[in-house]
Amino acid sequence: MRKLIGRDLFAKAIALEFDRGMAFLFAPVFLGAGATIYFSLDHEPAFAQLIAGCLALAVVALLLRSRPAVHLAVTTALLLVLGVLAGKVETWRMPGGMLAAQVSTSVTGRVVSVEPMASGRTRLTLDVIDTERPKLRYQPERVRLSALAMPADIRAGSIVSGYARLMPPAGPVRPGGYDFSFESYFDGIGATGFFMGKPRVVALEGSTPLSTRLSVAIETARETIADRIRASIGGPEGEIAAALIVGVRAGIPDSVNEAMRRTGIYHIISISGLHMALVAGTVMFLLRGAFALFPDFSARRPVKKYAAFAALCSISAYLAISGVVVAAERSFIMLSVMLIAVLFDRAALSMRNLAISAMIVILTAPHEVVGPSFQMSFAATAALIGAYAAWAQRREVMPAPAPQARSFAGFLAHKSLIAVAGMAATSIIAGLATALFAVWHFQRVSPLSLFANLAVMPVVSFVMLAAVLSAIAMPFGADGPFLYAMGKGLTVMMAIADWISVRSPVDGVGLVSTQSVLFVAVALAIGAMATTWLRLLAVPFVLAGLVVMGNVETPDVLISEDARLVALPITGDELAVSRARPNPFTLDNWRRALNVETTILPEDVSNDAELTVENALDMPPGMPFLCARRMCFARHMSGAVVVTAASADIAKSACGVASLIVIDDATAPDPCNDPAVLVVTKQDLARVGSAAVRFDSSADKPANILFALDIKDRPWHAQRGFTREARGLPPRPEKAFKSKPRPTNSNRSAYSDKPVFRKL
Asked: For position 322, what pLDDT does the model report?
């Protein structure tokens, strides 16, 4: 670089960037990198080593302040280690207590939240008080259960009891996929499941802690507001309105969710920076307009600070009433830093404030760094602030054109054109900054998101204005007109989303490489934070990211972690599956990862004596699954034969022809003892999760397999080693559990009229 540009020019640019505070802007980047390193480790690091490393690096950085280059390098290392330590501390303070295996038991717990679902069921989040029949020795502290029927008087804070089926959090549905057990661990959810009947409200003696009473009061207010919104607006619009105001999204129909995902406007539903900014902006606009009616007072008082303080209070209340979800919490921190900057006469929208917000989020919730919400929100905000700063810098050096005389109609048209151009630029910049992250996490893209966002943003602004006014008027019972206007705005928004969704091209794009995401992240950091010509250094990283984007090996076979579902692509747009009723969620994820649209279900050939696994090599490549006598077999496009079997004895007949055998039995040994045949049992999958297989081009080499969890020994996966399947044990035989006599009640038939089975 020095040879191409010149040493002096390069050194001057670097010095100017440091004078403008670029070193501080990169502090959250290295903190986040440290947190990412922690969550990518195979084993837990020791506390003592991390603390000692931080102290040693801090002392060295303090002693070497006189040597800027060395001081900068040591500080960078300190931030990396501090990010690792932040992840370790967060993991240590989590309650853990995740369920290891499915179990049916009677659960008694305190209701944390009540969420009506679009399917007609109701989902409860419970703090578990006790379990019985059987009593769990290692019961989870919090569970999430659904039920088809609920008592009418159930509320947050109620004590409920019922017989439920508890299931442990699932791992990734494929290697590299979203890890549900990871998210559940940091959300404090130890198990999910459903009530086997209607739960009942019971009385419990003893005092309730103050923190619990406070959370119950807030949750009760949320439920009351949500019920009022649904009663006033009704339909899907009422569910969306409840999601926008109090953060309750479970009742939104799947068709509406899918339409907004395809059009790229689903971010509107999640309470995040957009909603916080609209609430704060609306409050500030209304207050400053009100202060303008009193010019004498406004001239003597800092009314801008008054409005900023009121906006800060409003988003604090909004955060509490929205359920303090992580996305809203992160957005609240970002916006609070900006509003506090206004109170101290600092620039509100600056990269430094964004860096402060990012550091607070990373240090308080480092696990969010590896999630799509954190990455996409900060990427979009950094890109917008960087683009705004570059445009402002350009306008400073360019001579301002002389104002043109326009008529009133021309003035309105000019301002409208500027507003549309501003919204278009915002959508394009934010979309480009987040596109690769969305593709990496969700394997989908919204080709018409720019048009959809341009179309709905004015409507969303109107909707949020009505939402703020309805919240202000609700205590006085005057919220009806505002909720009515909000419902009509949401109807328009849904109509736009539906119209664009049906015209949107296929949104599946398949897998992209992790290296591509890393290159683009580096380019984004440089391009957004640099203020000189050094922004151009982002271009090589962008080009490198585009070059290696397709540098990813698409699996030939995918295997679910319960060994019950196997899938393989048989043509360019067809996916063959081994079960007639595959899990819809798993199948949808696999289809998007492999970028296929059509699913080919297995065919029963039990009555055809010629179609047996011994004759599989005589069948053409690309043959879908054929099933007979508890065995299914298919032939990949490479010619490899894939077999699924219920036991080792059944699978033994396939050893001579199969390249891959999946056995749905944790006790099964390798029936082939042939290194050329890859055998995967239910025990393997129970220990290390779902698997992806690639066939070697050489026929004499065994297939390559990658497990989702591989050898990682982390707290959010520790419970997997205690299952019977992971220990190679057969399922526990079902044994009727005799319940004790209980007082007769209306809900007894829910689990007393049928035998209850104890399964651990």
From this structure: 77
